[in-house]
Design brief:
Length: about 270
């Protein structure tokens, strides 16, 4: 596919230095975070909250720590508020913008709902890990919606991906929620230890929830069809590929009976 063909899927980039800069920064920083995960330099949350990175860093012993539940609420709530507030800030940008605003808001509402009522937590989260992730989610959500706002007077892309984007988003959000639900069922009341997940796509990959999250983010990009939305989806893909690889390595190190045929995120391949 030539670059000119790719442009058929995008709105003309608006003359905004902010959006152009954010497109580059978001993609590069997320991809770099994914590479760091593969190298063993993890963001300290979930099962990696207390894992020493391979640079021998001991600082986390002096870190301010939040409970995982509080940390996850901190991560997702500002992005949810940004999505909800966008209906007031940009009320008349057309149907495509309305769909994107709804998708972003619902995505983070689902995350907050899962934190409160679905997930079962056992660890902590370092505040210095929570703050940059919170800012990343908030800025990404706000920038997705703002970039869409800037297209309100621009000609539509010659290839319309709005409805395929809605379908991708619905598949992604549904599959992600279902596999989060399966994870929550692994622990009984009061249990904190990790177990090998079963059921759904867990029989093929250890991180199907990440796979569906990627699908959902490409749903955003297809709905939006802006340069920033695709940059965000590509960067997120690299990060979650790296995180899922690290997760599989963690399970292999903790469980002698972990099935070797279960891949990281893409069935039968990776």
């Amino acid at each position: 596919m030539t670059f000119s063909t790719f442009l058929n899927f995008l709105f003309p980039p608006p003359p905004s230095l902010f959006i152009t800069t954010m497109s580059v920064i978001t993609c590069v920083s997320l991809a770099n975070a994914g590479i760091n995960e593969v190298r063993g330099k993890h963001l300290n949350y979930s099962k990696f909250w207390n894992v020493e990175n391979n640079n021998g860093d001991k600082k986390k012993k002096k870190m301010i720590k939040l409970s995982s539940k509080s940390g996850m609420l901190l991560l997702y709530t500002p992005a949810f508020v940004a999505g909800a507030a966008s209906f007031l800030v940009f009320p008349d940008d057309g149907f495509r913008s309305l769909v994107l605003q709804g998708a972003v808001t619902f995505h983070f509402f689902k995350r907050v709902f899962e934190v409160l009522f679905v997930h079962k937590y056992s660890g902590s989260m370092a505040l210095e890990t929570a703050i940059p992730i919170t800012l990343s989610y908030f800025l990404s959500s706000a920038t997705l919606i703002y970039a869409q706002h800037l297209t309100s007077n621009l000609p539509e892309p010659s290839i319309d991906l709005l409805y395929p984007g809605i379908a991708l988003f619905l598949v992604g959000v549904t599959g992600n929620f279902y596999h989060h639900y399966l994870l929550s069922k692994l622990r009984g009341k009061g249990e904190k230890e990790y177990k090998i997940p079963k059921g759904g796509l867990f029989d093929f990959v250890i991180c199907p929830h990440y796979l569906f999250e990627i699908i959902g983010f490409y749903g955003f990009s297809f709905i939006s069809q802006t340069l920033y939305s695709f940059s965000f989806a590509i960067g997120t893909t690299f990060y979650l590929l790296g995180r899922s690889y690290a997760t599989r390595e963690w399970y292999l190190s903790k469980f002698d009976d972990f099935p070797k045929n279960v891949k990281a995120i893409i069935p039968f391949w990776f």
